[in-house]
Structures are given as C-alpha cells and as structure tokens.
Amino acid sequence: MKWLKTRKQRWLVPVYMIFYVISFSLLERHVTADFHLITSPLDKYIPFCELFVVPYYLWFFYITAVLVYFIFYNESVREYNQLIFSLGIGMTLFLFISLVYPNGLNLRPAEFPRDNFFTGWVGSLYRTDTPTNVFPSIHVYNSVVACIAVRRCESLRKRRGIQISSFVLSVLIILSTVFLKQHSVSDVISAFVLNFVVYAVIYRPDWLFSRSKKKIADAEREMPVN
C-alpha cells in the first residue's frame, strides 16, 4: 500500500461520498415502518430545545471545512489518511448496521412547545430527514473524528483558537442530536464506542496489537507444561 503513504489520494473522498449517498438513500427507502425502536431511559429527561438546530446544521459546514483543510492545505499524507479512513470505516459500518439491524426513533414531539423561527427550521428538518437509520449517530461519530483529527494535526496543534472552536462545536453538535430529538442517548453512546474502536485501529495500532500480543503471551505462560 505504498501508494497510500507517498501522496494523497484525493479521489477517494468524492468516490466514497457517491457510494455513501446512494447507499444511504436506498436504506432510507428500505427502512420505513418495520424497524427496531431505539430508546434509552435518559431520553425522557432531555427536553426539546429548538435552538440546537443551529449547531446541528453547522455539522455539515464543520465536516466539510475539516475535509477541505486536510485535502488541500495540510501537507501530511499520514494525517489525511487517518482522517478519511476513520470517517470511511465508521460510515461504512453504520451502513452495514442499518442494513442488518433496521432501526428508528419515536422521540419527536407531536407538536412544538413554541412557535418561532427555530421551530420552523426544525420542522423543515423533520420533513426532510426520516427518524430511521439513527444507530449509531453519524452526526456524533463524524464530529468526534473531525475533532480528533484537528487535535492531532501538527500544523494546527498550536492554533489554540481553532482547537477550542473545534472542541466546542463538536460538543454542541453532539448535544444537538438529543435536544432536537433526532437521536437517542443510545445512538450517542454507540457512536462513542465506535469512535473508540476505530481510533484504536487507525491512530493506536501499536497499542492495540501490543495488548493482544501480551494477552497471548500471558495465556501461553499459564498453559500447563506436559
């Protein structure tokens, strides 16, 4: 895989996005009524707050901005590969989970507690985005991936304003998913679990495999000698 290490394969991003959009659109048509209901006991304690529609939509600009920077401005091929493969692995696993485990929500309010510009915006969101294929939350997963990429980027490490902005926006986006009733707490937790696994594979393979080798060595030492 030397070709991946020597230069950025920029074509991977648009090609994968075409694949993802087509696959997700097919899933949206396939998963309509017969699905597993995702819920958490904590969901009922989280109030609906329409103001979170702002960071929810900022997610699209956030992920796009991070991708544009790593594709065209950040010179590190390794950091670029870590970002796109973290995104690609997680989003592909999300598609697979949605296919074998059709899922959806029943959390959206029957009517909004207030009538204002933001609730109107949320209404538009509800009409265009079905409450299905939510587990794990891609809004949460991609936000964490982007935040990690920015945090670990050598050229951005000392840009304190960018680091703080990235972290705060990621937190607000994650909160927006539950305060808009777009996702259950279960979706958020599952996204973090997926983030942990993919992070270990992409960013810390030495730690991951050294732990596995240690367990194997310990098991071999405990085996009885004939």
UniProtKB/TrEMBL annotation:
Region forming the signal peptide: none
Q: Which residues form the Phosphatidic acid phosphatase type 2/haloperoxidase domain?
A: 108-204
Q: Does the keyword section mention Transmembrane?
A: yes
Look up the coiled coil feature and give its residue ranges: none
UniProt entry tagged with the keyword Membrane: yes
Q: SUPFAM superfamilies, per this entry?
A: Acid phosphatase/Vanadium-dependent haloperoxidase
Sorted alphabetically, the keyword list is: Membrane, Transmembrane, Transmembrane helix
Residues crossing the lipid bilayer are 51-71, 83-101, 162-182, 188-205
* Domain of life according to the entry: Bacteria
Q: What's the protein called, per UniProt?
A: Phosphatase PAP2 family protein
User: What organism does this protein naturally occur in?
Assistant: Wansuia hejianensis
